[in-house]
Specification:
Farnesyl Diphosphate Synthase; Polyprenyl synthetase family protein; two-stranded antiparallel ribbon; single chain; mainly alpha; globular
Length: about 375
C-alpha cells in the first residue's frame, strides 16, 4: 500500500476522517454481541454497548494504516483491545465500589459483584480468541444453524477477517499479554499509593504509565506489528502511545474538577472518596504552603463530608495554581506524542493520530 503524502494540517477535520472506521468498529461490535443470548453474553453486551469512545480500537486501526497496513483484517484485533479495556473497567468498578459508568449503573451496581467479576474475566480472556481471528490459519470452522461462520471459540469470522501472517498475530498476542499484566501491575500500584499525597509525581507517573498507558501502547504497537511496520515505525508509534497515555490520564484526572458528572458519566466524588492521589492533587500538594497542604490532606483523609471535600479540593486547585499547571503538563505530553509521529510518512492516519492527541487534552468526558 502506498501512503499518501497528507499532512495533519491539510485535513480540515482529521477526526471526521476517522468516522468510517468508527462506524465499521461499531457495526462489528454490535454484530458480535446480539441482544438475545445467555446471561454472561447479555451482561458482556451491557458492558460493551453502547460503546464508549472506542479510542483504543481506533488507535490500533490507524497505527496499522500509518505503516501501510490496516483495513478489515485488523478489525478483530481492534475489538479485542476494547474487550481488554472494558473488562478492566468492570473490575475497576468492583474494586472501587463505583456505581456509575458511562452515565448509567456500572455492571457491578446492576448485576452484582459475582457477575461483574466473571464478566470482566470473560472479556479479558476472550480477547485472545478474537485477536487471533485475523490470522491466515484460523483452524476448523463451524457453522451454527442459519448463523454466521465462527471459529471454535465462537468468534465471528467476516469474509475480510483472514489474511494476516501468523507471525504478526503472534507478535500482537505477546504485546497484548504484556499489556494485560502491566495493567494489573498499575492497578496494584494504585492501591499502594491510595491516601498517600506524599508519594510524589514520579511514582504516580509510573503507575499511570502501567495502568493507563499499557493499553495505549498495546493498541499502537500491536497495530504497527499487524500492519507490517518496521522496527523504527513500531518504536515511533510506541513512543507516541506512551506520551498519549500520560496526556490522557493527566487530563482524565482533571475532569472531576472541570466537567459536570452528567457529562463525564461518573461521579465527581469517586477519586476523593477513594483517596486517590491523582495528578492535580499531587501537584497541589507539592505547590501548596503548609496550611493549604493540611487542608488538602484533611479533605482526602475523610475528615470532611465528601461534598465539602470536593469543594475544598476545587478551591485549593485554583488558588495554588495546580489546575493550570496540570493542564499545561497534560498539553505538553500531547505535544510530545505528536512529535513522535514525525518519523512516519505523512498520511491520513498520522493526521488522525495527531488529532487524537489534541482531543485527549480538550475533551470533557
Amino acid at each position: 500500500m502506498t501512503l499518501p503524502d497528507v499532512a495533519a494540517t491539510e485535513l480540515a477535520d482529521p477526526l471526521a476522517e476517522a468516522a468510517p472506521t468508527m462506524e465499521l468498529l461499531l457495526r462489528e461490535l454490535d454484530r458480535r454481541w446480539p441482544r438475545e443470548a445467555e446471561r454472561l453474553h447479555r451482561i458482556s453486551r451491557y458492558a460493551l454497548l453502547p460503546a464508549g469512545k472506542l479510542l483504543r480500537p481506533l488507535l490500533l486501526m490507524e497505527s496499522a494504516e500509518a505503516v501501510g497496513g490496516g483495513g478489515p483484517a485488523v478489525v478483530p484485533a481492534a475489538l479485542s483491545v476494547e474487550y481488554l479495556h472494558v473488562g478492566s473497567l468492570v473490575h475497576d468498578d468492583v474494586i472501587d465500589g463505583d456505581t456509575m459508568r458511562r452515565g448509567r449503573p456500572s455492571v457491578v451496581a446492576r448485576y452484582g459483584t459475582t457477575d461483574a467479576i466473571v464478566t470482566g474475566d470473560a472479556l479479558m480472556l476472550g480477547m485472545f480468541g478474537v485477536l487471533t481471528d485475523g490470522a491466515e490459519d484460523t483452524g476448523p470452522l463451524t457453522e451454527d444453524a442459519g448463523g454466521p461462520l465462527t471459529d471454535d471459540a465462537g468468534g465471528l469470522l467476516t469474509d475480510d477477517a483472514g489474511g494476516l501472517p501468523p507471525g504478526r498475530v503472534l507478535g500482537a498476542v505477546r504485546v497484548f499479554a504484556r499489556a494485560g499484566v502491566d495493567l494489573c501491575r498499575g492497578q496494584a500500584m494504585e492501591g499502594e499509593l491510595r491516601g498517600d499525597l506524599g508519594c510524589g509525581l514520579d511514582r504516580y507517573l509510573t503507575m499511570s504509565a502501567l495502568k493507563t498507558g499499557a493499553l495505549f501502547r498495546a493498541a499502537c504497537r500491536g497495530g504497527a506489528i499487524l500492519g507490517g511496520g518496521s522496527p523504527a515505525q513500531q518504536h515511533a508509534l510506541t513512543s507516541y502511545a506512551e506520551h498519549l497515555g500520560l496526556a490522557f490520564q493527566m487530563h482524565d484526572d482533571l475532569l472531576p474538577y472541570t466537567s459536570d458528572s452528567r457529562t463525564t458519566g461518573k461521579s465527581a466524588l469517586s477519586d476523593i472518596a477513594a483517596a486517590r492521589p491523582t495528578f492535580p492533587l499531587l501537584l497541589c500538594h507539592a505547590m501548596a504552603g503548609a496550611p493549604a497542604r493540611a487542608r488538602l490532606e484533611a479533605a482526602l483523609g475523610g475528615a470532611l463530608p465528601a461534598a465539602d471535600a470536593l469543594r475544598t479540593v476545587r478551591e485549593l486547585l485554583e488558588t495554588t495554581g495546580a489546575l493550570t499547571a496540570a493542564r499545561d503538563r497534560a498539553t505538553a505530553q500531547a505535544d510530545r506524542a505528536k512529535s513522535c509521529l514525525e518519523p512516519l510518512p505523512r498520511s491520513r492516519a498520522t493526521a488522525v493520530l495527531a488529532a487524537v492527541a489534541d482531543l485527549s487534552v480538550s475533551r470533557d468526558r
